[in-house]
Backbone:
């Protein structure tokens, strides 16, 4: 006879969290008024998490007067850590009544604490069921996942959203603080649904924001000012589809900043305007393709591991 009683086992282990006598680890989380301490058992933590295994065997870990090891994680909220602790002991994650921002923070914390299965499950959960929230909080999500660089599926999901709805990032209040690598990734996309000259304007604004000492009036710029902007934008300039910009926009939008372009490229642009059948030396990137797709919006709030 072979029987499995996983649900009862999970319940029994979860009840260990209420044991106020046999614990030998204290984990302090959150900041200021929200600070909270959780008690736990080193044996459970070590076997459930490689992160905690390393922390508990670290000779520099704090030990209090009662010989209890103390781990401090101020960057993880008390609500998030309570969910994680129940996952550690019971293997169950219930986010039925948890707001999406907290679920997102749970994914980040799970990755930091090296719960790969949990972080991947939440990543999929966000992609499959929380597209509307991701779109509403797009700048926050995109910047944070690009900085962490650990959630490739979510990153690709966001990149696809950007291609179809570029205003979510270009028109956001946080655009000027977007990381260079993130903006390069956006510019490389062939399906970006926005006029090339508009992309140029956005990137110019981004570059100027990075150099607040540049004169406000363009007519007051020196060659040194243009060189400063050129250096700032050097990773972006090769990814523009210059030869697919209208003649009017070349003259009205690109020409005022022609000094940040290589001389050969500018000469080729002018030649292409006047004599489009003549060969040029510059590389002509293909025009960006345009496609329209609706974002999913269904909601599912409960999953178990």
Residues:
């Amino acid at each position: 006879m072979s029987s499995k009683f996983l649900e009862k086992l999970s319940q029994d282990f979860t009840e260990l969290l209420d044991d106020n006598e046999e614990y030998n680890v204290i984990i302090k989380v959150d900041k200021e008024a929200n600070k909270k301490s959780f008690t736990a058992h080193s044996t459970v933590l070590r076997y459930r998490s490689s992160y905690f295994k390393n922390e508990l065997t670290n000779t520099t870990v704090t030990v209090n007067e009662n010989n209890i090891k103390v781990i401090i994680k101020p960057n993880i909220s008390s609500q998030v850590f309570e969910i994680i602790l129940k996952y550690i002991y019971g293997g169950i994650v219930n986010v039925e009544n948890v707001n999406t921002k907290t679920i997102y923070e749970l994914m980040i914390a799970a990755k930091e604490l090296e719960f790969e299965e949990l972080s991947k499950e939440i990543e999929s959960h966000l992609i499959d069921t929380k597209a509307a929230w991701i779109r509403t909080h797009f700048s926050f999500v995109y910047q944070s996942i690009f900085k962490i660089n650990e959630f490739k599926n979510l990153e690709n999901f966001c990149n696809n959203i950007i291609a179809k709805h570029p205003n979510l990032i270009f028109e956001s209040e946080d655009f000027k603080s977007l990381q260079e690598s993130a903006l390069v990734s956006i510019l490389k996309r062939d399906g970006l649904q926005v006029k090339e000259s508009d992309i140029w304007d956005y990137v110019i604004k981004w570059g100027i924001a990075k150099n607040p000492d540049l004169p406000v009036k363009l007519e007051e710029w020196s060659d040194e000012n243009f060189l400063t902007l050129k250096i700032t934008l050097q990773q972006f300039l090769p990814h523009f589809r210059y030869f697919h910009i209208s003649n009017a926009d070349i003259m009205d939008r690109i020409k005022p900043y022609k000094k940040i372009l290589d001389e050969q490229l500018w000469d080729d642009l002018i030649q292409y305007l006047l004599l489009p059948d003549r060969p040029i030396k510059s590389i002509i990137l293909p025009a960006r393709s345009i496609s329209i797709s609706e974002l999913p919006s269904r909601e599912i709030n409960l999953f178990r591991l």
